Amino acid sequence: MVDLKTVELLAPSKDYSSAVAAVDYGADALYIGGARFGARHAAGNSTEEIARVVEYAHKYGVRVHATVNTLLWDSELEAAEAQARELIAAGVDALIVQDMALRRMNLPVELHASTQVCNMTPEGAKFLGDTGFARVILERSLSLDEIRRICQSTSAEVECFVHGAICVGYSGRCFLSRSMSESRSGNRGACSQPCRLTWDLTDGNGTKYITGKHLLSVQDMNLSHRIGDLLDAGVSSFKIEGRLKDVGYIKNVVAYYRKEIDRALASRPWLERASVGESRYDFTPDTAKSFTRGESEYFFDGKHRGVASFDTPKSVGERIGRVTRIEGRAFRMQGAERLHPGDGICFVSNGELVGTNVNLVEGDRITPNRIDGIVKGTDIFRNYDHKFSKALSVSRTRRVIPADARLEITSSRLRLTFTDCTGITATLEKEATFEAAKNAEANLRSLVQQVQKSGDTIFAVGNVEVEGGDYFVPASQMAACRREGLELLLAERMKHTPPHHITDEVTSTRYPSSILLNEDNVTNHLAREFYRDHGVEQIAPALELQDDFTGERVMRSSYCIRRELGECLKKNPRLKGDLYLERGMMRYKLEFDCKHCEMSLRACAKREY
Question: How far is CA 200 from CA 184, 212, 564, 609, in A?
């Protein structure tokens, strides 16, 4: 027998209700934030709430990963360890961490190296695997070839983002928000998302090349059509971004990726799903109908232009068609049949995204609530599908675990055995007096039907074998036995927790470099000890601890404004000289590393404004 490799669909959970939705609609694992020290301040949960999530998820073998993935100050180490141990006691299966201080706390749980560790190289991933991390979570800007090389290099599992928002700067190495506000640090869970704001592109001396555009805002990721490529590369966990998204987003996107992953697994018999249960959908999932800034595969096939969203950082939704004629307060367009009254539509007018809703649809004639800004040739997008959203809100999709049953009846005893699809078994026995049925054939049908009525339980009972079907059992008594038997089966399932891979730190492992820069985020004495014990000789004071960022590199990125504008330095650009991004008092010089095809932002002194 060859052990199959498990594959996981990992879904975000803001709270208990979104966690339940993620499980019901097909997730194999969840990630959720504790009360503190998570990279999303607005998505924190009490330990008691997470314990409820764990209880629900473990019924299906779904793992729960808790985020403790901010940088830690020395004064916070004790509180961070206390919270980590509370989460472990609540039953979480892994902790997602950025700060290496947590590796030093001898925590009896899997540790996953957050994307905030900036996992981008085979050497770095190998180090993390060798030093005891069960998993590395990759930076979002990597290509398929880079992902493949990382998978081949490390003993750790590899987790990859496949859907949702993209951080334009390398995760864990971006200080743009922190440089603009002392209290708003992305590495501390409070990013103000300045990359989504409007900026001016200038020469630094008063000349403005571009004014008021979202020059750092990139489209959202959608790798749903590349699941097979990622599986073949060695990725074992597919992560959906969105701990701040609503329940409708969770239902729709998780259901969509569940189908895509199952389709890919069907042709790869050496792989299997990490949890159990069938999600029976009552709608057709479509990622274009949930929040999206436009869908992109980013740099999955290599770096290229066309990934930015200069006009807006907001959700644009799905393109419907182009306006062909204006008729008073209405317009005609190709694709109009796809719209319905109540839909929300948006379009770009004078470089700005404008939204309205649909009042009336008559063939290809659309009457919006507001016509201002809509002209012939305008591209219309739907960012709110009224019918789809209504279907999603009333969806009663259930996730059930297939099970079979064997019922044995004699004149003095009833024995009912349930076996789920994983082989877990529970048996109920009752002593009672049973008489022969008047109609044996009808009685047998009734017994089978009674056993199959699994109701609101998590099980769906299929095949039922009956021995002694000519004995009569009252329907109420049979229903009570079924309920009790399925409760026993659930109790047996809860004894089988998802597998864990807990490894002690291996201090003999050498870090790939003997030097750590200020952007490497060493902010406490435990993290310093960790790196020194692994061969690092020089550790610069953390940039995160500075008050003044003037002259410091505050962002490094695979995204390049020059490339996006068709002004690559390697291709004889028209735009010469230094370039700056400016907004109010803030100014950042753009630096271009053509050898590595990277762009950086370096903070300048604040200017008078």
Answer: 22, 5, 15, 14
